[in-house]
Task: structure prediction
Amino acid sequence: MPIFDASPLRGTTVNRRANVRPTYIEPPLTLGARLRRSTLSALLRLVVITAWLAAMLVWFLAYVPVVGAAVALVVTLGNVEGRMAGFAVGAVLVAAGVAWRWTGPDSFDRYVEDRTDRFARRIRYRWTWTDLLAACGLASCDAHHTIRVPRLWWVQLGRYADVLHVQLCPGVTAEQLAEKTDALRSEFHALEVRVLPHPTRRGWCLLRVIAADTLLDGVSPPRTPADVDLNALELGRRDDGAPWLLRLLGRHVLVAGATGAGKSNVVAALFTQLAPAIAAGSVRVIGIDPKGGMEFGLYPDLFWHLACETDVEMVEALELAADLVQARAVALRGVARLHTPTVEEPFYLVVVDEIASLTAYLGDRHLRDRAKLALGRLLTKGRAPGVSVVGCVQDPRKDVLELRNLFTTRIALRLSEKTEVAMVLGDGARDRGATADRIPVTAPGVGYLIEDGSPTVVKVRAGYVDDDQLDWLAATYPTPTRLHPDVINAELVHDDEADEQGREPEVVPVQRQRSKARR
Ligand SMILES: Nc1ncnc2c1ncn2[C@@H]1O[C@H](COP(=O)(O)OP(=O)(O)OP(=O)(O)O)[C@@H](O)[C@H]1O
Result:
């Protein structure tokens, strides 16, 4: 038995001994005693409520300083110059407030409305918390029949989203809280509620209550950086206002979304960030576009190799990438655990627009199996040797993309059904706030992102990259080298026999490929 049991200190007590029947019955009180008792308790309540209202009023006046200063002025003048003077000044100040709202709605909103709204939100959280959680079944009852709900310790108010710091009580988990986010959202009059792990405390969690969608108005196109950091590629913005930084080194990225959800634009945003490294030669992109080059054909100069015409060509491009992984893994054996991209040993990125065209919709079964095998080799072995895959998919079902769980970063843009959210982001992601099936058609590029090993759901929107910007990128940052066609046809992916037998195809050393590519 622990020396000190801290559990009674965790959680808010709702009721004590709730389920216990009284063991004795109080003798009936006389009418006088009953009156005295009820009057006393009513008086006590009145005092407590008045003190609470006074404290709230003072807090409100301090929280909205413009209103606080106006009220202080009216009260002071009323005391010094008499009531009439106080009323007159009050009327003038109200008229000035109306005029201010009329002539400068932005500043009025910032100094008065927004702060008042935030204050009201704080009161609403506190006021409804205990009853709401108990009503949602997020309460536990201990051995002493004490009913507790998780405790709301403090509230961080933001312009568009508030963060509630919640200490869980014994018997209630963050997962249970996540299942009830719809009820919380409706009660808090919010757009979304998301459960996040607490960054510092165990047994706590954060509730992110989103009051307004900051991503609806669109996001400006990402600026091309001078130095490319493959661990922080800025593709757009997160809904908390921070930049959306994508980590590509050592990751594979799956972008899923219905047609028109903005998948190609996410890839285009990626190119705005990679372009200087492509031009410098430290990043080489292998593009596979089953739409016949309609997407990647717009900026072919950024690709080290672009396969978009025949199915065979596209499958061979995948196999080429898988062979590169194999060759590099051999070269790195005993030297390093993670490849560091340089101009001599560049980082390879394989971008596949509509990956299902290769893994599910290819008519030739043999070719489809080859594509699946190559993709599997790439996804399982490519991260450490510096070969990453970015794949787009419209239909995320398992029979379409068996290997979707091997993608370490998964982005769900607008999806058609609830069930697809779990297919892309994993079980429980929708409960934690990834409502990709609710993204409106009018908001292409908006999506939810999850990284392997982290339960945190992040809402993001890619910056919109138009055709002119892509033309400019391709003209300014063309790739200095291209894959020599002979490499594909003659040496790297010819080993059909190996595929049929299920063994690794023979691989040529990296050094030899490079000298060929430069020819
Ligand atoms: N981040 C964004 N901001 C604003 N508009 C966007 C954004 N992303 C995409 N769009 C708009 O949505 C349209 C469709 O985008 P995109 O072609 O990227 O979708 P997709 O998912 O690749 O579609 P498909 O599956 O049909 O190829 C674009 O033409 C563009 O007008």
User: Anything to note?
Assistant: The pocket of adenosine-5'-triphosphate is lined by residues 218, 257, 259-265, 394, 444-445, 461-462, 464 (CB under 6 Å). Residues 488-495, 505-519 have pLDDT under 50 and may be disordered. The longest helix spans residues 31-63. Residues 233-518 form a domain with the Rossmann fold fold (CATH 3.40.50.300).
